[in-house]
Amino acid sequence: MQIAKWFKELGEILKSRSHFFPKKYVYDFSKNLENDLERFIKERSAYVTQVTLFGYLKTRMGTRHTLFFSDKKFNSSIKNASWNIYVVSLVDCIFYAFSYLDKAKVLKRENAKQMFINILKKDKEIGLNTEIFEKGLNIFSNKVKNIKWESYYLEEPFKDSGLALYDWAPIADELKKLDKKIVLNSMHLKWNLIQNEFIGLVKKAKII
Fold this sequence. Notes:
α5 (about 110-125) packs antiparallel against α6 (about 130-145) and α7 runs antiparallel to α8. It is built from eight helices and no strands. It is mostly helical. The longest helix has about 35 residues, at about 175-205. The N and C termini lie far apart (about 50 Å). The chain has one domain (about 1-10, about 30-205).
C-alpha cells in the first residue's frame, strides 16, 4: 500500500526535518535575501501543506485509514490535492513575505512572480504537472491584480491556502462541512508558526 508508506515516510521526514527543515541549512536573510527567501517559501509551503492535509486525513479516518489508502483512486486524489493546496500556499507565502518586507524596500514587487515561477519550474522536475503549473500561474496573476503590498501581511494573508485545504481534501462534502472550522484553524495555526519564524529571521538580519 503505497499511501501507507507515504505516511511512514512523512513521519520520518517530520521527525528528522531532513527535507522541509534541513538540519545543515541555516537561513541568513542578511547575506542572500532572495535565494534564502525562495528556499524558505518553498520548504515552508510544502511543510504546511503536507502536515495539514495528511493530519486531517489521518484524523478523520482514524484506524480505518489503511482501508482507504489501498485504493488507487484515493491515492491519486491525495497527490492531486497536495499539489493544488501547495500552489495556493506558495502564492500566499510569497505575497506575505513580499508584503511584510515592502516597507524596507529590499525587494522589488515585480520579482515576486519570477520567484513563484522559479519554484514551480523546480517542482515540475519532481512531479508537478503542466495543468496545475498553469493553474498556479493564473491564481498568482488574478491575486496580484488586487493586492495591497503595504498591508497584505496584516489582512488574513493565508486565508486562501486554508480554503484550498478545505476544498481539495479528499473527504466527503457532508463530513467536511462539519470540520470546516477545525480545518481552517489547523492551517491558521501552522502558518502562525511559519510567520513567527520568518519574523525572527528578518529581525536577526536587521532588515527592518
